[in-house]
From TrEMBL:
One of its GO terms (molecular function) is manganese ion binding. It comes from Priestia megaterium (Bacillus megaterium). It catalyses: O-phospho-L-tyrosyl-[protein] + H2O = L-tyrosyl-[protein] + phosphate. Belongs to the metallo-dependent hydrolases superfamily. CpsB/CapC family. The keyword Ribonucleoprotein does not apply. This is Tyrosine-protein phosphatase.
Amino acid sequence: MIDIYTHMLPGVEGSKQQFLDAAKYLVSQGVKAVSITLDKETNTSLSLYVKEANQTLKDNNISLTIVGGTEVVADRTFAASYHRRDIMLPSNETYMILTTPEQEEPAYLEQLLYEIQLNGILPIISQPECHTYFLENKDVFYKIVKKGAIVQLSSDSIIGKNGKPAKKAAMQFIEHNLAHVIASGASLDNYKQHSLRQAYDVIAKEKGAETSQLLMQNAEATFNGQGIQTLPPDRIKKTKFLGIF
């Protein structure tokens, strides 16, 4: 398995020993590679940290590979700065992980995603199943995905750790081809709660082994900077409840 969204970099997120303990645990769970994301302010030194982390793994005979990734908080300030081209991001990026603040209604997101794609980068919307705006505006979410955004669900949502609404939305997104990748968001403080394997098992049980395998393959493709396999998205129809009042 490959986890494309973690916060586990030694020297930044925690100590070297924490990192080694986490790496050993992830390997025992079947994880062979992880992408470690930092916010845009830290990306200038990310490559050095990643190089040192991989050397540490090699020195300790741990079969885990680390790569760096870009994560940004896609709020109104970032959207405006990106539009003005005030923000410098790594030029070799294929994907960019976007988190949206819960307190904002990201009506600006569609334009931001369009501008990111114009620069040859595929935006990955992280954990939309946990965001009230997307749960209440599923048709808007559908249109964003239809225009090319990639969606990453939280493994914790799949197994129910993020609550019933998040789990229901996550499974709906999978069923309607509105989700493409699963990741944990694990950190050096909570890696023992890593739920990626369990999430894939739940998906295989509830949506079929083929769906679980496709999501797993997409994580590997993302990690390798390759194109992922997507299926035509479907709108989520509103359910009408009938009753006697």
